Amino acid sequence: MISGGTAAYHTLGCKLNFSETSTVARQLSENGFARVNIGENPDVVVINTCSVTDNADAKCRNIVRRSLKSNPQAYIVVIGCYAQLKPQEIANIDGVDLVLGANEKFNLPSMLDDLSKRIHGDDEPGAEIHAGEIKEVRNFIPGFSSGDRTRTFLKVQDGCDYFCAFCTIPLARGRSRSGTIEQTLAQAREAAKQGAKEIVLTGVNIGDFGKANGETLLQLITKLDKVKEIERYRISSIEPNLLNEDIIDFVASSEKFMPHFHIPLQSGSDEILSTMRRRYRTELYRERVEYIRKKMPNAGIGVDVIVGFPGENDDLFQETYDFVNSLDISYLHVFTYSERPKTTALRIDDVVPTTTRQHRNKQLRILSLKKQRAHYERFLGQTRSVLIESSEIDGVKFGYTPEYVRVSVDSKTVDGNFTADLRLDQINPDGFVTGTPQNSI
Predict the structure, then answer these.
(1) Which of 43, 133, 266, 440 lies at a C-alpha separation of 20 to 30 Å from 109?
(2) For the chain, what percentages of helix, strand and coil (3-state, to nearest 5) are there?
(3) β-strand 232-235 against 151-155: which pairing, if any?
(4) Is the pLDDT of residue 215 over 60?
(5) Distances, alpha carbon 269 to alpha carbons 255, 309, 316, 319, 345, in Å
(6) Which of 268, 271, 239, 280 is nearest to 348 (CA)?
(7) What's the pTM value of the predicted model, to 2 decimals?
(8) What confidence score (pLDDT) does residue 53 get?
(9) Is pLDDT at 54 greater than 70 in this prediction?
(10) Statement: residue 17 has pLDDT above 60
């Protein structure tokens, strides 16, 4: 194993990927690799890929080219979901040297025994591949993102047992698994030592936390709530059938867990939900949103929706639009359905044209802007507690209220990585709420 050098990292995809990139970076740091940017001639470049976003191959190729432009001799390592699903496809990208699957990516330090570039030729096998069968992945590697002292993404769970018709995550990450509560608490305390003020609990299906250990997500958040060093927590995306009233009640009573939920819906049509193999229907989803509103009237509620799933005709899309419009929610994340190899959705013949998918995406994004503006308007004229981020753009810093309202403020008037009381004045043309400090904490 080579010890020492410089390493750069690029992450595509979800918050969980950012957490895992940081874990790999810490491993390499412990073996003498200093972290640098891709443009600073790194010896090693680690690219953490995603299988959910479109054009995974093109995005990966682009980052490889950027890396080699900075240093033609850089040793290129590709990890992540795309690497597990299509290792040979990545190995054939000119310039890639090592491809690691889900079970192998955290063994990277032990594999860096030769940083010489592999020259691809007609008779060359391409990059070295280590990507085993996903069914063999059983271990859970805890971790948290680093680099942003204000907010960290804490990995509490990995994998998924749901096998929704559109999703490749179980094929890329394996079965659902998690660490213990004590292991997770230790990671939270370590993140706090590094300056994190807010922790976002992340995973593939975090509502499944602890089931192999006889523990529950509710037990976890109850324990996390008592970690004095952390000011704020947020629960990232959680399935509506796993977001029970006990969890909602706890968040409503907690001073540290923010009144903010992100709940995937995917479709407002029960027919499409059934075809997607989702484990709930619209009645349950509405009940969850209404219960949150009952307990936390001003909570931020985000929703994931997929448009253009096979079989979604105009009437069924209208059902989704009308259902989402009828909910008292705060914003949408809208995804355009795209075909994924080895998913059961490929067996459905009634394919929605690409132009129709794009049009429906636009309709829901416009609806999202309306929902978000209405959510922001609830708070205009009020003074809210805003956790200010360290970075700034053109003399402006940003932060979020507990209810996930994005606020901008003159950077001269506040310190980064601190909480400030801001009066929320108006919604500016960029869609942010401008804030005026009342006092700093």
Answers:
(1) 133
(2) 35, 25, 40
(3) unpaired
(4) yes
(5) 36, 11, 6, 6, 16
(6) 271
(7) 0.92
(8) 64
(9) no
(10) yes
Nearest CA-CA partner of 224 in 189, 266, 270, 178: 189
Structure tokens at 78: 């590709």
Would you say residue 255 has pLDDT above 90? yes
Beta strands in 81-231 (DSSP E): 96-100, 128-130, 143-144, 151-155, 198-202
β-sheet with 151-155: strand ranges across: 143-144, 151-155, 198-202, 232-235
Distance CA 96, CA 103 (A): 19
Helical spans, DSSP H, in 51-168? 56-70, 81-85, 87-91, 108-111
Count CB neighbours of 370 within 10 A.
12
Chain segment 389-414, per-residue pLDDT in tens: 988 999 999 999 999 999 999 999 99
Give which of 302, 340, 336, 303 is closest to 317, Cα–Cα: 336
The full set of domains in the chain, from first to last, is: 5-132 (3.40.50.2300), 140-257 (3.30.750.210), 259-378 (3.30.750.200), 383-440 (2.40.50.140)
- Which pLDDT tens digit goes with each residue over 151-166? 999 999 999 999 999 9
The rounded distance, in Å, linking the Cα atoms of 436 and 94 is 51
**For the chain, what percent of residues have pLDDT higher than 90?**
80
Q: Are 265 and 302 in contact (CB under 8 A)?
A: no
